[in-house]
Specification:
Layout (H helix, E strand, L loop, with lengths): L14 E5 L5 E6 L9 E2 L8 H17 L12
Length: 78
């Protein structure tokens, strides 16, 4: 399982995945400042069990959380 990176805003390492806007969506959220990533849709039909679907959605939410924009290089000041 992918481990979540520290929060890019406050540096806190506690990140949890929970239900987002409704039961079909999951989101990773910083426990300290409340920053979130984009919502991930959980599979709710088809093959597999609810537990398997939850595990995949949690993994996908953490991958989304770990996605970081590359910083823009700043010119050195003289």
């Amino acid at each position: 399982m992918t481990e979540p990176l520290p929060c890019p805003f406050c540096g806190y390492v506690g990140v949890n995945v929970h239900e987002a806007s409704n039961f079909r969506w999951r989101v990773a959220e910083c426990d300290q400042c409340g920053a979130t990533c984009g919502e991930i849709r959980i599979q709710t039909m088809g093959e597999g069990t609810k537990e398997e679907w939850e595990a995949v959605a949690k993994e996908d939410a953490i991958k989304e959380w770990n996605t970081r924009a590359k910083p823009i290089p700043q010119p050195e000041t003289p």
